[in-house]
Write a structure and sequence with these properties.
Layout lengths: L15 E9 L3 H10 L5 E4 L16 E2 L8 H11 L6 H20 L6 E2 L2 E2 L1 E2 L9 E2 L6 H14 L4 E4 L3 E8 L2 E8 L5 E11 L20 H9 L3 E2 L4 E8 L11 H5 L3 E3 L19 H14 L5 E4 L5 H7 L1 H9 L9 E10 L2 E3 L11 E3 L4 E2 L11 H18 L24 H15 L6 H12 L12 H22 L17 H4 L1 E6 L3 E6 L4
Parallel strand pairs: 1-2, 1-11, 2-8, 11-18, 17-19
Antiparallel strand pairs: 3-7, 4-5, 6-7, 9-10, 10-11, 12-17, 12-20, 13-16, 14-15, 15-16, 20-21
Helix pairs in contact: 1-4, 1-10, 2-3, 3-10, 5-13, 11-12, 11-13, 12-13
Length: 537
Amino acid sequence: MIPRYLVDVELDQLPVLDKDVIVIGAGIAGLFTAIRASKHHDVLMITKKSLLDSNTRYAQGGIAAVFSDEDSPAYHRQDTLIAGAGLCDHEAVDVLVHEGPRGVQSLINMGTQFDLENGEFALTKEGAHSQRRILHANGDATGFEIVRALSENAVSNPRIEVWDDHFVIDLVTEDGECCGAIVQKPSGERLFVRGKATVLCSGGSGQLYRYTTNPEVATGDGVAMAYRAGAYIRDMEFIQFHPTSLCYPGAPRFLISEAVRGEGAVLRNIKGERFMERYHEQLELAPRDVVARAIVSEMEETKSTFVYIDITHESAEMVKHRFPTIYEYCLKYGLDLTADWIPVAPAMHYMMGGVRTDLNGETNIKRLFACGEVSSTGVHGANRLASNSLSEAIVFGRRIVKRIDGLPPLQAKPNVRNEQERISAPIQAVVERRLKLQKIMVRYAGLRRNENGLKKGYEELKRQLPIFQSILTQKEEFEFANLLTCALLTTEAALQREESRGAHYREDFPTRDDLVWRKHTVLHRTQGITEERIEDV
């Protein structure tokens, strides 16, 4: 079994720092929540790299919210529920679609500049949306613009202290209440940061897979530490693979935004044939999981490692104006978006599951909150609707801060009990272990799954469990332990769900089974795997 704490510490021997609110992570969820919380509280933001290293920064498409007269929250709700394939929480979706516009307004008030056309927001459409409701910035650099505005805000705020290059090892709990976290400084020294509220905004687990659009820092730390602390982890089998990431020798797996298809790009196999009509009536704008699996089928059939995305029929001016970042990026590798077909393949993109929260972002552990990709609010169900993730982070960030405002001061006097003897055996090259784990996940728990493969993957992963008996000291070792935890949770949940739904596809159970499987899989460190029925509204 995975132990309660990753490291042995005597809590009363550690230096203690008191803060009102501790925010772990620095994407849109962390920055927005920290800024909102700083109105009434002293905030500490801890990031293991820097303020600009998060998934948000790479978000191109934009942020979904109802701003057009032709659109309505009811339409947005319907699109979200359809994409979520029967697993969305209706109340959470209602919260998102009604409070999204107000959240976007808060971003604008904090200095975010969205693109305008004739004085109105320039709205675009993405896959599975019925209306134009995606606000974007600098064409296709929405995430970067949001992070720019929010980090300038946070850095200049006297009530927010930012710690770069610090690693949060574990959450400290006492009697079902979170009291803060054990943090390792760049020097290796550890301390206990105590807080009235702790907010996990640590992002997803993209590094579970060898091919991912996520940055190096996305190692599932928040999910893993919450799991160790006794939080419920929900729907980990639902991993969204983005259908179109750049697949070119020497280039990282850079995202070619869904919005490119939204503006008319088509997909072709290596023979040059357009193929989406064989798979779905919405063609290139079908739900992401459908497009990703179609691409894999074409790759297998034509024995290639990629397909092409082609927007050469649109005017060069439009393409450069609308997608300046993607255009420039491809150009670096000698590919011209306006004239060339661009080679693409699916890559891990987003984790739909995570730490289960209520409508105020609070977990089953009192004073512990989760926001953004690390959380499972119920908004995304089995498949996230494009551009709903940024909206979710701000809508639930606002709610978390309201809830924190009403919390009484922390009374608990925590005590960390070490349950096991750790051996100081050095861990053999973490880099190799990480690559091995990624290969297992791609092979057995990727876009297509089956019982034999999942069982085999699960057994191979379990062979790595002795790491939890070792004495860990380095950031890379903690990250590997966290990735291993998330890999085991993902594989176990995928084995449990004997159907195909949303982003979870089982070759041995290719159809969706609402009678048996319209429910969540929930994992808990001591209670194991359980199921949670969906209450129909």
